[in-house]
Fold this sequence. Notes:
191 residues; Endonuclease III, domain 1
Amino acid sequence: MTRCSWCGTDPIYVAYHDQEWGVPERDPRALWEKLVLDGFQAGLSWITILKKRDNFREEFEGFDPERVACWDEGRIDKALQNRGIIRHRGKIAATVNGARRFLEIEQAEGFSPWLWSFVGGDPIQNGFADATEVPAATPESVALSKALKKRGFSFCGPVITYAFMQATGMVNDHMTSCPRHAQVSRLSAAG
């Protein structure tokens, strides 16, 4: 059995594939962090984001939504000076806005249960044998994208939301030939 081909041989990518990608995530803060990072990835490769993830975590105060929600223009300007992150004003401002939207959803219904409702609360177990079978978006990711935008989020189109769903284990898109497919399936069944 072989790993999913997308992770290649870069040790950072391999570790991400083997330890994180596809593992069901229910922690609301961790889900928000991943959604933010997927938004920053727009137009870039995921390996670029992974290599900068620690810098993002430091700049965005551990992805603490309560702290980031309080940022003003001066704090956004400060973040734009950090060469260790993607310095894109729109994406940084979207993160601040997203922190505020996160807090609204978390208080009203819980961010994690709300996100997971788009897959019926349980991971979708796909059985793709070849990477060419994996869609760029699905009806679920389109629905999630529309709902996020309706709530005021940005940088969350259906392709970004599908990547988010894959990464956070809402869908198991490890190839059936990958040892992680069965492992992630068992983690999903364990709840």
